[in-house]
Specification:
mainly alpha; about 65% helix; DNA-binding; homodimer
Chain lengths: ~140, ~140
DNA sequence: TGCTATACGTACCAAAAGGTGAGAAATGAC
DNA sequence: GTCATTTCTCACCTTTTGGTACGTATAGCA
């Protein structure tokens, strides 16, 4: 996280996340739907996806190399792959400007913004409980 | 998801998630902390961790084989590995009963519960936007 | 005297994920 | 003419991940 949370999540994002949390869940769940949801969770719960989501939420529209420079440790291959996947899932738009050298802009869609907002609580949790987790690990590793 | 969300997240969980969302974020972030948070996110944003978290939140205390039976597709090895990792991170407790045959109970700690609550918004998002994502994929795959 | 049940550890192997480096395509700067 | 620029794709290789199968300990039961 390069900026405080308020830079990345505005009042609307937080309001939407709260609406999600307050909302009535569906009464019964089709096992077929269940499988698809687990599948979807498996897809979006990916390190690079999460980091790109966060970055684009914070910075808005960015081009390929700019993203690469700002996400520490990502290889070009992973960047291309993750962006393509997110585009396929409808999380971001990819705009190719037919100029030379090529210029491609990436930006979150409303769907991408809503996912980012949904993850807001997880980021906050991670920030708040970082030390607790570190301490738990130290304790675990210490006992024999 | 085998049960509606209200089965897994009670009013307290949701209230806590809302408190997270409403809360003031820290003003500035140490790059060292940033690295650790990204690291932590990478660790918990794992398919099996998420599914175990969900299951234990829903069912409470469970023993090893019971978990294995209820999480579709997990191998014994992955189950052991994921449980051990979660225990190390302080997300769950492992209680060995010295009986024969052995009996080991797993249950979430308050920290585990809070993480589960933090993921509440993501589950809701996945449920609500499943069809949107599927449609986006179909559209993406269709255009040559 | 086997046989079963439970919760693993471990060794070996296959599959998947990911890194690296080359190349492609077109144009403006030198 | 050639060099850099940008956004990739592709092929090759290494690393990581995960599956399978087998071993272990021990009390109760037939």
């Amino acid at each position: 996280m390069t900026k405080p949370l308020e830079t990345r999540f505005d009042a609307d994002d937080i309001a939407q996340a709260e609406r999600y949390l307050a909302e009535e869940p569906p009464a019964e769940i089709d096992p077929r739907v269940e499988r698809l949801v687990n599948d979807l969770i498996g897809r979006i719960a990916d390190k690079w996806t999460l980091l790109l989501l966060e970055l684009l939420e914070e910075k808005g529209t960015l081009r390929f190399t700019a993203i690469g420079r700002q996400v520490d440790g990502i290889s070009q291959k992973m960047l291309t792959q993750t962006l393509r996947q997110m585009e396929r899932d409808g999380l971001l738009t990819r705009t190719v400007h037919p100029v030379v050298p090529p210029r491609v802009d990436y930006a979150l869609t409303p769907l991408g913004n809503s996912l980012s907002a949904a993850f807001c609580g997880v980021w906050v949790w991670a920030e708040r409980n970082l030390e607790t987790v570190e301490a738990a690990r130290a304790r675990f590793d210490a006992r024999d």
